[in-house]
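To the wet lab folks,

You asked to see what we're planning to order before we commit. Fair enough. Below is the target structure as tokens, and below that is the sequence we designed to fit it. If anything looks off to you, flag it before the synthesis order goes out.
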């Protein structure tokens, strides 16, 4: 905890006088912290940088019984949004994923979060799991909805290098079933009042994630902790940089000086595609004015690509935002290749 606070203090100049409008405790298992420790970190952050009045503070938690016992403490510490990594309510799928909780604990975690006072709860769910049927995928969504989730992050399982699944690939649903699951899941979410506002994010009652929207709108953020990444705009230098911290926890804790491992400027020829890779993930796109504000680029530089994509019916015509059509959203990678 002390190292995190020292890390934040060392990075406060990157804030350039701005207050924090969101905080996200994630990456690893931040819910292993006690509520008191989370409170100490938040108090330090408010003193060092300052909070906007309506700050969103999210903490990732696993559904295990031990962590559920802390939910009320997290509320008391100032956390106002909980993100629970459930992935599935199906015990066989949880076992395939190597998760240590079961479906009953997952349902209990949602109930505990609500009884503790959280009215803004995100549920992480995966689809395209080994041997998953269409009905099983729908059941996961139905259970999350029936138990009061207001935000669902619903994303397809991907096989990452250096994982057990990568070395021993499981039997995954074929492309036709994946397409059926995707279509049926989206229809089910929409029928229950959930609006898709990002590729894998669905919210009802307006409870979108402010923190994640900042990422997708190419906003600035500080990365605090071992392996954390940040993105900072330096307008006077006409530069955007990415920071990264020492990855190994023991090295991070042992360093006496700044824990920034490196910071690198985003190359100008990569700036447009970086901006679009984030902004076009949003269902309603990203305001055109943010291109110049957050990259320093002149919009005329990408006007030919935008016009061509509009002629192909892959981007919406208009001057207020960069936004894909429904077709472009389905083939987002093709759209991004143009930049």
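Sequence we intend to order:
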């Amino acid at each position: 905890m002390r190292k995190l606070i020292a890390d934040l203090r060392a990075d406060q100049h990157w804030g350039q006088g701005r207050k924090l409008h969101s905080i996200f405790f994630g990456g690893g298992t931040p819910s292993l912290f006690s509520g008191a420790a989370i409170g100490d970190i938040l108090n330090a952050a408010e003193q060092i940088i300052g909070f906007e009045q309506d700050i969103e503070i999210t903490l990732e938690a696993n559904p295990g019984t031990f962590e559920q016992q802390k939910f009320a403490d997290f509320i008391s510490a100032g956390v106002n949004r909980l993100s629970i990594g459930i992935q599935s309510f199906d015990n066989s799928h949880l076992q395939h994923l190597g998760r240590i909780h079961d479906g009953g604990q997952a349902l209990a975690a949602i109930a505990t979060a609500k009884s503790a006072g959280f009215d803004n709860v995100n549920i992480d769910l995966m689809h395209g799991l080994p041997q998953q049927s269409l009905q099983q995928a729908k059941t996961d969504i139905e259970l999350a909805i029936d138990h009061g989730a207001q935000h669902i992050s619903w994303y397809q399982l991907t096989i990452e290098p250096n994982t057990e699944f990568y070395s021993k690939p499981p039997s995954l649903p074929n492309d036709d079933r994946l397409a059926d699951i995707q279509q049926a899941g989206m229809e089910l979410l929409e029928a229950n009042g959930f609006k898709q506002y990002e590729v894998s994010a669905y919210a009802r009652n307006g409870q979108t994630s402010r923190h994640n929207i900042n990422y997708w709108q190419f906003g600035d953020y500080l990365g605090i902790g071992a392996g954390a990444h940040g993105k900072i705009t330096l307008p006077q230098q006409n530069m955007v940089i990415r920071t990264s911290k020492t990855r190994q926890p023991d090295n991070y804790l042992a360093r006496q000086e700044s824990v920034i491992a490196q910071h690198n400027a985003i190359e100008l020829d990569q700036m447009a595609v970086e901006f679009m890779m984030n902004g076009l993930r949003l269902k309603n796109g990203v305001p055109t004015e943010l291109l110049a504000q957050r990259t320093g680029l002149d919009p005329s530089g990408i006007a030919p690509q935008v016009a061509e994509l509009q002629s192909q019916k892959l981007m919406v015509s208009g001057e207020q935002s960069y936004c894909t059509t429904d077709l472009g959203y389905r083939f987002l990678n093709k759209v991004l290749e143009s930049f």
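Structural context that might help your review: The chain is about 40% helix and 20% strand. The chain has a mean pLDDT of 90.

Thanks,
Computational group
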